[in-house]
Hints:
The complex is a heterodimer of chains A (279) and B (351).
Chain A (H helix, E strand, L loop, with lengths): L2 H25 L5 E6 L5 E3 L10 E3 L14 H7 L22 E9 L2 H23 L4 H17 L3 E7 L2 H7 L6 E13 L9 E9 L3 E3 L2 H8 L25 E7 L5 E8 L5
Antiparallel strand pairs in A: 1-9, 2-3, 3-8, 4-5, 4-6, 6-7, 9-10
Helix pairs in contact in A: 3-4
Chain B lengths: L2 H24 L6 H22 L5 H32 L5 H25 L4 H24 L7 H17 L2 H21 L13 H11 L10 H22 L12 H26 L2 H23 L5 H30 L1
Helix pairs in contact in B: 1-2, 3-5, 4-5, 5-6, 6-7, 7-8, 7-9, 8-9, 9-10, 9-11, 10-11
Amino acid sequence: MRREIWIALLLVAAVNAVVLAGVTRNRAGSPEATLTLTERELPLVAGLDAEENSGVSLRLDWRPYVDDWGWFDREKLAGIGFDPDLRPRSDEKGDRYREPLPRKAFAVLEYDGEAWGRHKAKREKELTELSAKVEKGAMTAEQAKNERQQIEGDLLAGSRLFVVDVGRDPKELRRRYPDRSRYAVVAAKVGMRRHRPSGPDSKAEPKGYVADVLVDALHVPRDLQTTLRGLKADQGRLYPGMRFYSPDRELAPRYEVRVNWGGKLEPWVEEVRLVAVPE
Amino acid sequence: MQKEEAQQRADRIRAFREELAQLKSDGVLALGVAERRALDEHHGALLAALARQFDVDTTGAEKQLSLGMRIVSFLGALALSAAVFFFFYRFWGYLGTPAQVVILLAAPLLFTLTIELAARREQTLYFASLLALVAFTCFVLDLSVLGAIFSITPSPKAFLAWAGFALLLAYAYGLRLLLVAGMTCLMGYLAATVGTWSGCYWISFGERPENFIAAGALLALAPLIPHRHHPHFAGIYRVYGLLAVFIAILILANWGQISYLPWKARNIEYLYQVAGFALAGGVIWLGLRHLWAGMTNLGCTFFVLYLYTKLFDWWWDWMPKYLFFLLLGLIAIGLLVFLKRLRVAGREVAA
């Protein structure tokens, strides 16, 4: 057999060995974080009735912020390696300027914590104000009904996983957020853009944002799939706006998933459990 | 002797025989019976030996059929690769993780071994080429699916592994298709690596075309390493690498705002427009000088493309369409006249 073929065979074996060693290293020892999430944060991607793909996967549904990226300020941007003083070029008018390319950093995801509490309170306040808006004529009854449906969908089915901090050093982030059952530190793609708050005299300021969580798809191993395969395929996945399309469907998560993040901050599904949907 | 050289020799013999017949018909040269017989016997034995050893095409019909077989082999490889891909996704959910890993690892290994078996049985390498592409697909599937199963953070190093595998198969059997696959992966890896030098996350490498200029230039320079066993690879490297550079320049010449350069977008566009014309001219010159037909054609194509996009910028909005296309046609005729004169001048120099 030719020498190149031997090397090709060795290359395939070696690359697989390196990949699997990385997986073992990630899962060795106690997990870096363990969160018990629900269908709200981990909706099904595909696999229940998809003929061409028999795999079952879940997608990590995280929310970028409660009100704005106010906390992702100049100091944090500089810490990640952005230049917050980047000025527009002479041919770029106003606040427009060429955005620098995104960088890799680490983000803290908070589950069912203070960020969700603030978001929930804000949405509930919006709900109580709807009637007053209709009375004042700022909104029609039909608009109020749609808005109510949207807010209720968000409160009952929306994800409670929020990005609350970013940084370059995951260990430092873990030091700041020590609760490993509520906060997960994950690799993320972050960017910088210029943001001008509302108001006539406001000045454009550089603000950071999280563009992506680098690993947001979780494969469900075969021995944990049974629970999910048992769900009625025709009900599909849970999402906040589903009442518009499936008015009879209960807006409640149908399962809980225990997810571990390992030493390399890569997640895996540890357990899947059905939860009773209220009648 | 390599297969390409054997095929060139067979083509020369065929052309020689046709010319000899023509000379005889024109009454210019007629070989004696003994000479003719000796020549026929020599060429016949030589062609038989070449056909036996390298499975070369000895007639025009065979050559046409070979081209058809190459196309069928390529389409078959694509179809089989798609079949492997969909077959795995159809059933992987019913397999436990260890079984998935074993299948993903075994598939590229097994298909790689079958390439060697096919190459031993068939010297034209149509089946070997087909199986090599399937083996490459299996390796791509292997790493991609391992990444999905174990939620692994994406890495540009996967491109390097795929490139290494494809290039090893390409060099083992002289397979052009695998060379192109390998170069594509290597281009991805190099462009991503160049992109990370500015601090950006590697997945965003496609947003700055300059990354491809650096990667393409490196590939175009690969023939500086001698390719004694695969001389035909050198031209493929040059054309592929320069194609990437030309496309990146074409994009930057029209959208300066996506450049790394800190200048006004308009100035960046001017710079790349000038660079594009200069590079196209240089590539045509190099192609003519070294008789690299692929490079000359590539240079001519992009010279015209750059010119047409510039003319479009200048004239499309204010000129009647018939006049615009008339001018394009006239410019093409002018270029033809120029190239024809260049050709005649080259012939005179050679004489």
